[in-house]
Amino acid sequence: MKTSDSRSAIAYACVSGHLVRQVVACDEGPRQRRRALSDLANALPLPSDLSLAGCEIVRVVTTPDFHAGKPVPVGVVLDMVGGLMPHIIGNDIGCGMRLIALSDVKPGDLNARLDAHLRHLFFQGGRDIALTGRGRHACLRDGICGLLESLTHRRGRGLLATVDLEACWRDVNRTCDDGCFATTTVDRDFAEFATVDDHHRHDAIMGTIGGGNHFVEFGVVDSITDRRFAAVAGLTEGGVVVLVHSGSLDFGQLVGTRVREQLRRSVAAGDRRVLSLEQSPDLAARTINAMGNAANAGFANRFLIGLAAIEAVSRLLGRRIAHHLVYDAPHNLIWRHGEIFRHRKGACPARGLGELCGSPYQWLGEPVILPGSMGDGTWLLKGAGCAAGLQSAAHGAGRRLSRNEARAQAGIPDRLRVVGPLDLHAPDLRNRADIVHELQGRLSEEAPDAYRPIDTVLAPQLEAGLVSAVARIRPVLTVKGWWQITWRIFCGPDSRQVPRTGRHLSAHDGAVCHKNRNCPGPSPKRVKLAVGPLGPAVGPGAGAPAVGGPAPGAGMSAHRRYSDGISQGSAWAGLTVSVNPSALVTASSVARRGFPSGPNAL
């Protein structure tokens, strides 16, 4: 059943027995919408199954960036009573956007020499972030406030030594929910990571971008539509900004995977994806708390990524860079409002006047950050608090092509400036067409043609009264982490550690050991090591890693990931490896060797 109301941007559909209100993108093709609705039908439990669990879905809406996704489409908001559905959010818990305005930096300052600083800081061992055990514990329990409090009592080292604490405390009220999601404790799966002590330790998690569509982007404020709001946000035309898109990485992965496994084991009848407050109170309470821990880690991660991006500009210009936060908000999380659990899967909070008590935006509306594809720019919007739209808005342009389709059809225009783990123009790669081809394929998955034009997503939101426009931002360069190929190694009492020879392992990005102290979860019996898009094979019987000496522009960053196939209590660890591309093995050779590839918010 599909109908429309008097506003052309609005449509309705009946999906799995639930009425869905849709704000539809301009020129939305029927095929893409059908695919997304089909995925939504698979994601939503039937009303009868919800009733068995003592739950009910009250309302469902989709935003204009609604697009197909497994197991849940992106751009979905739903209200539920009596329980929650962790699978709607998935593993990317607390993923969100952070927009930072830089002072006394001109667009012309962002010259080509910045690329090397960014590559070093994010991918080649320059990420010097060390937290004490108390600081880690505080991050997970109390988010940004906990992190700043820990730095107040014990000054940070490395990158954290540059923090202006007074300015950071002022930024707290420019953060969704003050950057602190309600928790009662740190989940026991994170206990080793968050051991309460005063020892500074580097890890391979905090301050990393991640893969997929996560990024850091430098841009310039191109035009301002709402000058009053822009003045409060501290934006001026021609000003330079940094946009961070990332989440909680391993923390969300661990929570999401564990909860799915526990629900499969514990729910006897009905839909095993539904977590009932009445039937599973202990599991629900632990899940709510653990999701809060992951959301807080996401806030802290974006904060640290922002510091690294600003540090790159400071090194380029040879001076400290003053900056302030415009806004930071998650778009992949569950918020609790009394009895209502509001699930946002790829959708921004867009509250209106009077909602953000104590914030400079209280009587203006909540900032909404709407990025487009690489090269398409970003819109800063303000929420209108639309009740019919569940006070939510789109979180991006939304995919038009799947990743496989984008590989086949899309490409990265030469005009785009993209910084990744490897410099595709480096002399070391001239004779490695296999590596260049693979990296270009990864980039094609995020090409502009793979996404809708941003204005086709903005226009229906303006028409539907979800948001209003504030400023448009023109992109200058984008920092992207690329998807990694993984190899399995085994950790235990008789495990063999990866050799720490030369500069192969970064002192700042951790290493794999049998205690696995760089993972948020408990010490596992099995760990996976992830390195670059193509990298050394490490595994039982593989011998020493196939790495050469470090080469300029050849660093590879490892990002830890979890898999549904990993048993409970297992984790992945990561490290940064500097390699010579001439020593890299190809994906096909790895396959031949038999190694597998690989009211606050909750």
Question: Mind explaining what this structure looks like?
Answer:
With 602 residues, the chain is α+β, with helices and mostly antiparallel strands. The chain is built from 13 helices and 27 strands. It has helices at residues 30-43, 47-52, 86-89, 113-123, 133-153, 165-171, 227-233, 250-266, 281-317, 403-409, 433-444, 454-464, 587-593; strands at residues 2-4, 10-15, 18-23, 56-67, 74-81, 83-84, 96-102, 129-132, 157-158, 200-202, 215-224, 240-246, 275-276, 323-330, 332-337, 340-345, 347-349, 367-371, 378-383, 392-394, 418-419, 467-480, 485-490, 526-531, 555-556, 573-574, 577-578. Strands 7, 11, 12, 14, 18, 19, 21 and 22 form an eight-stranded mixed β-sheet that branches. A seven-stranded mixed β-sheet has the order 1-2-3-4-5-16-15. α5 (133-153) crosses α9 and α8 (250-266) packs antiparallel against α9 (281-317). The model is unreliable at 1-7, 483-519 and 522-602 (pLDDT under 50).
State the shape.
globular
In total, how many beta strands? 27
Q: What's the N-to-C terminus distance?
A: 34 Å
Helix content: 25-40%
What's the Cα radius of gyration? 23 Å
Q: Flag low-confidence runs.
A: 1-7, 483-519, 522-602
Compile the SSE list and pairings.
Elements: E1 2-4, E2 10-15, E3 18-23, H1 30-43, H2 47-52, E4 56-67, E5 74-81, E6 83-84, H3 86-89, E7 96-102, H4 113-123, E8 129-132, H5 133-153, E9 157-158, H6 165-171, E10 200-202, E11 215-224, H7 227-233, E12 240-246, H8 250-266, E13 275-276, H9 281-317, E14 323-330, E15 332-337, E16 340-345, E17 347-349, E18 367-371, E19 378-383, E20 392-394, H10 403-409, E21 418-419, H11 433-444, H12 454-464, E22 467-480, E23 485-490, E24 526-531, E25 555-556, E26 573-574, E27 577-578, H13 587-593
Parallel strand pairs: 3-4, 21-22, 24-26
Antiparallel strand pairs: 1-2, 2-3, 4-5, 5-16, 6-13, 7-12, 7-14, 8-9, 8-10, 11-12, 11-22, 15-16, 17-20, 18-19, 19-22, 23-24, 25-27
